[in-house]
Amino acid sequence: MFQRVLVANRGEIAVRVIRALHELGIEAVAIYSTADRHALHVRLADRAVAVGPQQAAQSYLNIPSVIAAAATTGCDAIHPGYGFLAENPAFVAACEDNDLVFVGPGAEVMARMGDKVQAKAEITRADVPVVPGSVGAVRLEEAAALADELGFPILLKAAAGGGGKGMRIVDDHADVEGCFHTAAAEAEAAFGDSALYVEKVVRPARHVEIQVLVDSRGEVLTLGERECSIQRRHQKLIEESPSPALTPETREAMEAAAERAATAIGYRNAGTFEFLLGPDQRFYFIELNARLQVEHPVSELVTGVDLVREQLRIAAGEPLANVGRASRRGHAIEIRINAEDPARDFAPAPGLVEDIRAPLGPGVRFDTFIESGRVVPPFYDSLLGKLVVWDEDRPAAIGRALRALGELRVTGIPTTRELAIRILRSEQFASGRYSTSFLEEEPGKRLVAVAE
Predict the structure, then answer these.
(1) Measured at the alpha carbon of residue 115, what is the angle toward residues 109 and 116, in degrees to the nearest 5?
(2) What's the whole-number mean pLDDT along residues 272-299?
(3) Between 20 and 30 A from 79 (CA), which of 13, 138, 151, 186?
(4) Do the Cβ atoms of 334 and 240 come closer than 8 Å?
(5) 269 touches 106 (CB < 8 A)
């Protein structure tokens, strides 16, 4: 096992990884920008290294600075968390070039899976269904022709990345050109690559993903699914496991597909295969997230598997203790608490957190980095923390989540807490009959209006 690991991130995920390192008896080295010099992850780490000014491009995304921080502190490995450099093949290659173990998949696999077009082609060869669409990147004229062939609506997606960037739904011919240019410009700004591909929109659809762990021998453990359909602008707000939409047969088929795909592409470490699920139980691969997911605690609570510890063990060359299908028990729900104002179209709301009180009690977990009297800087992601609950069944878990949200207090800045309460109290969520368009539909509009 490693002696010292650098955590190449900030916020709640840096805190999460540092705690896992300490539980394994490993020294943790933090990095920080000038905006984060007093942050919780800096104080929890055994050592901390400044890597640049407040702008992420000059600090957390600065590969030479991050590598230098690891090298000068004598680290054996780097854990990237999620976001920033977590899915950057050049960063993985830089780690390898400097004899640092990257806690995640190799650079070559990451590069292949980061190209969404190539990823779809490889997944198809593994006999995993994909959403109908273009074989590769397309020009504007080809996108318009495909729209005629597939039928509207279609989805334009960035070939070089995900997370909702460079993505537009097109409902008719009049919008194709404008949406194409907007998506291409957004993709260029986010990923340095304006290439787009086309997918048929599956509607109504649910966003369901399968968590996998793969060790150095290629042995695979699947940890069931996470339901991630409550979203705004393709960004997840609430996740749960198990999904109320899946039959046992579909669940096994999806896990088998993820296992088959992981083996075919030579994947290693933790990864998530994302699928769209139609009302007919048919599912389609959309992308592989070659990293730890924000919503990983949902899987941890229903399986009892600590995913960060397993990531570190796999990276250190240790075999998985169990393979096949992880056993599961109960129901878990995660609610993201963001520094955003739902009344202003989820505009970011940085500022001073005057007071924060985390909920307590059985089956409640609150992963955060925020403390009373600290400022949420405007330079990074708006996520303040993740409230995760577990109980024996879904109705009990919803009740526990509502109780915990009622106890949670964040004053000084707007958050998505009240909106989350209204979503969990809605008939659609309680019944389990919801889709990715939940917040776009009339009940969702009323939810946001009430939050105003």
Answers:
(1) 115
(2) 96
(3) 186
(4) yes
(5) no
For tokens 């510890």, what's the residue? 309
Whose CA is closest to 387, among 369, 401, 372, 399? 401
Instruction: Write out the residue limits of the CATH 3.30.1490.20 domain(s) in the chain.
Output: 132-200
**Dihedral of alpha carbons 226, 121, 182, 162, sign:** positive
Lowest mean pLDDT among 160-174, 198-212, 385-399: 160-174
Residue 137 to residue 132: CA distance in whole angstroms: 14
> Are residues 203 and 188 in contact, defined by beta-carbon separation less than 8 angstroms?
no
Q: What is the DSSP letter of 268?
A: -
Average the pLDDT over 237-252 and give the result: 98
Annotation: CATH topology of 132-200: Dna Ligase; domain 1 (3.30.1490)
Please say whether the beta carbons of 312 and 26 come within 8 A.
yes
* Residue spans in the chain of domains classed CATH 3.30.470.20: 206-451
Q: Binning pLDDT at 50, 70 and 90, where does residue 242 land?
A: very high
**CATH T-level assignment (fold) for domain 206-451:** D-amino Acid Aminotransferase; Chain A, domain 1 (3.30.470)
Q: Cβ neighbours of residue 234 under 8 Å, at least 6 residues apart? A: 163, 164, 167
* Among 291, 328, 417, 422, the one annotated catalytic: 291
Mean pLDDT of 44-62: 97
Catalytic status, residue 291: yes
Residue 352 and residue 336 in contact, taking contact as beta carbons nearer than 8 Å: no
- What's the pTM value of the predicted model, to 2 decimals? 0.90
- Tell me 175's DSSP state: G
CATH 3.40.50.20 domain residues, the chain: 4-103
Q: Which amino acid is at 117?
A: V
For 87-115, letters b (16+ CB in 10 Å) and e give: bbbebbbbbeeeebbbbbbbbebbbbbbb
Q: Is the pLDDT reported for residue 446 higher than 70? A: no
Q: What is the predicted pLDDT for the residue at 30?
A: 98
What DSSP state is assigned to residue 319?
P
Q: Which stretches of 247-391 are DSSP H helices?
A: 248-265, 296-303, 307-315
**Where do the H-state alpha helices sit in 59-171?**
63-72, 89-97, 107-114, 116-125, 140-150
Distance between CA 225 and CA 223 in Å, rounded? Answer: 7
Q: What is the CATH number of domain 4-103?
A: 3.40.50.20
